[in-house]
């Protein structure tokens, strides 16, 4: 008799449990996933804005544990890792802490990988505005991370870093941001001491954006650093153009003046006019 009661109770219990269809179960899972992703995104952004990159990274990673295919989380993770890497590298510079340098290198590599993963997830052929903006943000994040990878972590990656910038530039529609990105791309070669290639890219930057002041300065500097005296006149011309159009408060003004004096004293070279429009500057 007791056994029958237990069976009856079990059967009764079955009748009071809600029946959830597969579609409903899937929807609940999606809802839960989205809530976790949104919560992680918000927490990570708030922490990153406050400069707490450890907390931001932890939040984004928590979200990615559930929503690995969410490109916005990956892009923002990339940004937080890149910025934490910069903080760690400054610690190495100031304190000669080798462990901080290696930690920075790991962060920059991870930052590049995260942004690249976001781009892979989004794939080709973006059509709606939201998706296009997400892809642009991921391109920008990857280029910014790869700049550090190619100039600090592994110089053999300089070409890959440069190409990341080319893809970002192709996606960017803002003229000032394009100009700034073209300068940053050219500067990769300057930082790895490939001065001829840097000069060629700074010329391209100035062809498109003639009043990019920093490009005039860096082109002049790169031409001097090639050691090819046949290029010194061009170097003087661009340094003088920088002096003419850059604000007097620009911290590079003193160095440009010093380089022009050196070219005059050592090589008897004086600048000639570089005809460029006087409007617009690096964004």
Structural class: mainly alpha
Rg = 27 Å
CATH architecture of the largest domain: Alpha Horseshoe
Give the strand tally: 0
Using the alpha-carbon principal axes, give the shape. Answer: elongated
The poorly predicted ranges are 1-17, 277-283
Total tally of structural domains: 2
Tell me the strand percentage band: under 5%
Question: Topology of this protein?
Answer:
Layout: H1 2-16, H2 22-49, H3 53-66, H4 71-95, H5 98-122, H6 129-153, H7 158-171, H8 175-191, H9 195-208, H10 213-225, H11 232-245, H12 253-267
Helix pairs in contact: 2-3, 2-4, 3-4, 4-5, 4-6, 5-6, 6-7, 7-8, 8-9, 9-10, 10-11, 11-12
Explain what the structure shows.
It is a single chain. This protein has twelve helices and no strands. The N terminus and C terminus are likely disordered. The chain has two domains: 131 residues, Tetratricopeptide repeat domain (Serine Threonine Protein Phosphatase 5, Tetratricopeptide repeat, Alpha Horseshoe); 103 residues, Serine Threonine Protein Phosphatase 5, Tetratricopeptide repeat (Alpha Horseshoe), CATH 1.25.40.10. Helices cover 77% and strands 0% of the residues. It is an all-alpha fold and 283 residues long.
Main features:
283 residues; mainly alpha; Serine Threonine Protein Phosphatase 5, Tetratricopeptide repeat; 77% helix; elongated
Summarize this structure briefly.
The protein is mainly α and 283 residues long. 77% of the residues lie in helices and 0% in strands. It has helices spanning 2-16, 22-49, 53-66, 71-95, 98-122, 129-153, 158-171, 175-191, 195-208, 213-225, 232-245, 253-267.
